[in-house]
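Example for tutorial group B:
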């Protein structure tokens, strides 16, 4: 389960690569479902991010919404095929870093009472620097998909390991988001 070096070149064990690819696939599939499940709510979130920018005044929320969904579908598609893992990692990482940058701009502008757009249903996440850290860590994980993979045969135990590791990553991500969401709820009660 470790990074292996071959002639001075770092390469991933296939279990790590498959787990990362599956986790990024699941992350982007969930993000797409979230946006499509309640498109109007996500467009409201976009309006919050664009508050004070001329793009908001020109009614670009719908085209921006469509662009984001299409971009996430492209990442999802690239993640599904082993031959496109480098493009998937680069694009996924780039998208996550752009989201972090947009959050950072709004944090700097003190526009923090908007939903980050990364939660389902009534759960809300007020913008917070912890979300930037989360997105940078996710971007680094996605970028790791671009590393070369050690060529070895996969066994049944390897596949089971990938499934359990992916489920564990999803549970940890969900738990982390829930903790951040609870922090938002507490801050709203204080304010």
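The residue assignment follows.
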């Amino acid at each position: 389960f470790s990074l292996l070096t071959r002639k001075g070149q770092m390469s991933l064990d296939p279990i790590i690569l498959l787990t990362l690819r599956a986790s990024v696939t699941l992350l982007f599939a969930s993000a797409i479902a979230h946006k499509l499940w309640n498109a109007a709510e996500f467009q409201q979130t976009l309006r919050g991010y664009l508050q004070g920018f001329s793009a908001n005044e020109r009614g670009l929320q719908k085209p921006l919404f469509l662009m984001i969904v299409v971009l996430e579908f492209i990442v999802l598609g690239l993640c599904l095929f082993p031959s496109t893992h480098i493009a998937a990692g680069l694009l996924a990482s780039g998208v996550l870093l752009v989201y972090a940058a947009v959050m950072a701009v709004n944090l700097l502008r003190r526009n923090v009472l908007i939903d980050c757009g990364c939660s389902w249903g009534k759960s809300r996440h007020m913008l917070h620097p912890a979300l930037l850290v989360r997105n940078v860590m996710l971007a680094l994980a996605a970028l790791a998909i671009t590393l070369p993979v050690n060529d070895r045969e996969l066994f049944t135990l390897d596949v089971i390991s990938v499934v359990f590791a992916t489920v564990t990553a999803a549970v940890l991500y969900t738990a982390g988001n829930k903790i951040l969401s609870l922090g938002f709820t507490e801050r709203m009660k204080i304010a």
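The beta strands are 4-6, 9-11. Compare this with the pattern of hydrophobic and polar residues in the output above.
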